[in-house]
Amino acid sequence: MEIAIEELAKSIVALFIIVDPIGNVPIFMGLTSNMSREERRKTFETAIIISFVLLNIFALAGQSILSIFNISIHSFKIAGGLLLLIISMKILLHGMWEEKYLSSRSIGVVPIAFPLLVGPGAITLTIVNIQTAGVLITVISVIVVLLITWLILRAIEPINSFLGETGSVVISRLMAVFIAAIAIEFIASGIRFML
Fold first, then answer.
1. Of 15, 37, 167, 192, which cross-links 163 as Cys (Cβ 3.0–4.6 Å)?
2. Cβ-Cβ contacts under 8 Å for 16 (sequence gap 6 or more)
3. Which whole number is the average pLDDT over 110-134?
């Protein structure tokens, strides 16, 4: 029981760090700046629903997808770790993860749900979690993180005002360091099992 709670806590914290809803607050505000409060609320609700569906699809079918392409979980950990490391470096150097293309009609799906909330890092972590922690812990961690994210998005305007530009940059860069550490752990773990 203690091990399960520890695994769940670890899974929630790692996924929350990678999803990074607080660090992304200024980006979300910028993407929805031309929307009314009601439109913004609907956009964020769409983003949370799509994120939940995507993460659960990868959690439940991720291993099958890997099997189809004959990829081991250890190779996927190394590849995902390298990808996470690149993302963290981009955030550290440029202050954010940028997407150039925006679809005005489906902004809640692209880029908010994917790739900002559910990007390569979250997908990698979810597939790895299903192997290491099991289905129940993975699904619970997805639900908890997306619930917290939904609450943050509901209060996005006061959070954005409170953080200010400097606070947003500090949080974004701090989260990038944690993402880099998770990436190194993925790479090291994958290499250990392959040797």
1. 167
2. 145, 148
3. 84
